[in-house]
Amino acid sequence: MSSFVRLARHAFSILFFGLLAAGLSGCAHSPLPPAGGVEAYASVIAPAVFERASSQVIQGYRVESGILRMPDKRRGSLVVVHGLDGAVTALVDEPGKRGVLQVSATGKRSFTESGAENFKLPDTIKVARHHLHEASPGGLQIIDVLVGLSRQSANWLVDPLAFAIGQIETANQGLRNALVEDVQIRLAGMQIVDDDHAITGDTLSQVEDIFARGMTSAHADLVAAFFVGNKDDTATGWGYIPGRATVQRARSVTAFRHEIGHNASGDHCYGEYPDDDEWVPRFGYDNGKSTTILCGNDDPYYSNPRVHDQYGLPLGNTRTANMALTWHEMAPYMAAYTPALVGQRLILAGTADVTAQFSITRAQPGLVGFVALSAVNGPVQLIPGGAGYTPLTVRLKDAQGRESDVYFRGVRWVGQCPELLTPMNATVECAVGGDVYLAIEYHREDNPPLPDRLFSGELKLKVLDRSVGNWLEPVTVLISVAGSSKR
Ligand SMILES: [Zn+2]
Predict the structure, then answer these.
(1) Domain extents for the chain?
(2) Distance in Å, CA 94 to ligand 1 centroid
(3) Cβ within 8 Å of residue 258, ≥6 positions away
């Protein structure tokens, strides 16, 4: 957010909404995602040069990715996610330097190295393919992934949502680099759980149970668990061949793209086992200079014999190593594990206070607002004006299924007038127009009795537009938050 907007909103808030200003200090209500600046990570990636190949906005966060080019021609990759409050999370995959760079909104920096990794260790559980569901081949295949965190891994993160968006992007980058244009991995939702686990095959076999509630709420096809891990870890990550779950070390920036490749039924390097010919061409590739994601994982590519590295060598073999073709063939099945969520999704997940926002473009923004589907949760009708925020109540569950009512705030504004924060169901005009924004906020101070555990669930809202008969769009807020009461 620009300092001008911050100051303008702050001054306005003090004048007119003193109560609101107290509650919202430190929150982000930004009309536009922050512009991407290289200064946040330039010193960490030096002497590599970042060649940006993709830039997009997801839930108000800007995610950029591309290749890192070293002076000696070696290559790596970089994913940078800019959060709503100016914090930066970067997944750095540079030859000789891999890790997670985090810069907080106040400029505090940390770089956590991924540590020793060996992606040729046994790290898979093979399952029969009769589990595959009916699929609809053709067109863009979107595979929805729930990112699961433990409280320990989430506490280490400056911005858990930025981390989840960045990890998902590492796999999309591998697909784009391998010229797979009809497959996209999407962040479906997030769930944070109380306990961390070792990175083992045994944990892999429990992941779908541990994150069952989050998978159901988010309509997730797959689940990717990111744990801190411990001395019992048997690999950097584990994944089913094929299947719906992976588990990996949170500090690894290259494990997820590898393990989800296993979920797509990919295996390591061709020629290691006598029955490998039954699996071709679902292998990664090592051409002597570069190793693709499933066979060594040094370079950000799934194997494709049509793609060449910087030395002119192919990154695949037509008969044995063509993960690009495998992704193309498997994605319709992977995207069909669960029907996708209808409407907008808003992911609200963290172990501290957390805000989530999205925007929608409508012809007459002054006539658009947000209401609850059920009066149990909040207001179900639009109002013409008002100040402050909308109190919302959502019944959430902890890991044991114990229920608690948890309180949230719903705020609305129009893009060009971010100082006009109103209840989410108020249809207040903005003379210069802009997109209509909704922010849902969780404040621990609103929930003093909530026990110090993780709670998850969902809140169903809808967008209403007074200018168009009954126009509406459903909004599902996917919630995973922590209480703070030690009693
Ligand atoms: Zn593997």
Answers:
(1) 119-334, 342-482
(2) 20
(3) 119, 237, 239, 293, 294, 297
